[in-house]
Design a protein that fits this description.
The chain is mainly beta. The chain is 8% helix and 35% strand. The protein has a six-stranded mixed β-sheet with strand order 2-13-12-29-30-14, with no helix packed on it. Strands 3-4-11-5-10-9 form a six-stranded mixed β-barrel. GO terms for molecular function: aspartic-type endopeptidase activity.
């Protein structure tokens, strides 16, 4: 029997994450471009910098306003909170709030402009009196943001500057957003995302790696990595008309301690969304039941504990010096095998998987399962890659 070990209770995350299925802890990823990587800490968030120039000072540059943003591969519209942004319509944030009135490069889009029309379902009419294009994004968990759709200069690192970057200038949010972030950096398939806006420069390719704990470093990269393609487990990536912003792959099998689970192939047919913001992986109920049974059978030496939110296979590991876990491998199309790091198996001392609502619905591959892997999105090439032990 193949097993892995890890210390107990490693990498516990806030209970609110478990409720919402979204990562809301505060560590940051430093974005980089052009095949370079830079240090990060645990989490699924990126630091980007909106770089305004003096508004009325002859266009002379002024220091940029650093904005800590959540990386989100399942949405299209990037946004940051903008002044004026009174409470409680806005949430508190650690970074200095972006004030477009201080930037000579800021430009709102007019209602009826091609960019405004391109917002499609994210459009929210016109601002009264100003004829400025408005946007609104409603997330699946009920949270939302609304404000003015604008452009300004985005600096990703000291040498990479994106002029005319389009994003939402948020003046109101609903629901809980983490106080240590200023907004969301969308990386979905839509025309408004960072990946799409930089496609001509970086070829529709980006990747990231989320470390297992804050003591390790990870990265976010725009552009083709320098790592040889042979080091990635590659699988086809596809889209669906019901949710065109999403990136899906097809799970073919789950292997526990070297044994392939007996799951009918049709169960995996709808595909699985790879979502940088979702914490926990959700499997079709039939697949989850098989995984849970196999995992419990190999964890019988540990005391069971009550469920925690949607996680129903939990253990009392108090006093246990080291926990021995069965290996879990996710096998995707083209035999792309991803053996999970031990930190991707247990979450808050529970099996880090949950059942979806229906075998006919697509699943979700969460960021906990992909910790330590570089996840490569080759949007132009229609492929996703996984490189183990990358951070």
């Amino acid at each position: 029997m193949r097993r892995r070990t890890l210390p107990p209770a490693a990498g516990d995350l806030p209970e609110s994450d478990c409720k919402s299925g979204q990562s809301e802890h505060a560590p940051t990823i430093q974005p980089n471009v052009g095949q370079d990587s830079s240090p990060t800490s645990e989490g699924s968030e990126a630091v980007s910098v909106i770089e305004p120039t003096a508004g009325g000072g002859g266009g002379q540059p002024v220091p940029g306003v650093k904005q800590t943003m959540v990386l989100d591969t399942a949405s299209d519209v990037a946004w940051v909170q903008c002044a004026p942004c009174p409470m409680p319509q806005c949430h508190p944030q650690t970074d200095t709030i972006y004030d477009p009135s201080q930037s000579s490069t800021y430009a709102p889009f007019a209602c009826g402009s091609p960019v405004c029309r391109q917002l499609g379902p994210y459009g929210n009419g016109c601002a009264a009196g100003s004829r400025q294009c408005q946007y609104r994004v409603l997330y699946p968990d009920g949270r939302s943001t609304m404000g003015t759709y604008i452009s300004d200069v985005l600096r990703l690192n000291p040498t990479s500057v994106i002029g005319g970057f389009q994003f939402g200038c948020s003046h109101a949010v609903q629901g809980h957003f983490p106080n240590d972030t200023a907004g969301i950096m969308a990386l979905g398939r839509g025309a408004q995302s960072l990946a799409s806006q930089t496609r001509l420069t970086y070829g529709g390719v980006f990747s990231y790696c989320l470390p297992r704990t804050a003591s390790y470093s990870g990265f976010f990269v725009l552009g083709v990595p320098r790592v040889a393609a042979a080091r990635y487990a590659l699988t086809p990536m596809f889209a669906i008309p019901q949710a065109p912003m999403l990136y899906l792959v097809r799970l073919r099998a789950i292997v526990v301690a070297g044994q392939v689970l007996a799951v009918p192939p049709a169960v995996f047919a709808p595909g699985s969304v790879v979502d940088s913001r979702s914490v926990i992986t959700r499997l079709p109920p039939t697949a989850y039941a098989a995984l849970r049974a196999a995992f419990r059978a190999r964890m019988g030496m540990y005391r069971a504990a009550p469920p925690k939110q949607q996680l129903d296979t939990c253990y009392d590991l108090s006093g246990v010096r080291r926990v021995t876990l069965p290996t879990i491998t996710l096998v995707f199309d083209h035999s792309a095998a991803v053996e999970l790091d031990p930190s991707g198996i247990l979450y808050n001392d529970c099996l880090a998987f949950a059942p979806g609502t229906d075998d006919r619905a697509w699943g979700v591959i969460g960021n906990v399962q992909l910790q330590t892997y570089e996840v490569l999105y080759n949007v132009a090439g229609g492929a996703m890659g996984f490189r183990r032990a990358a951070c």
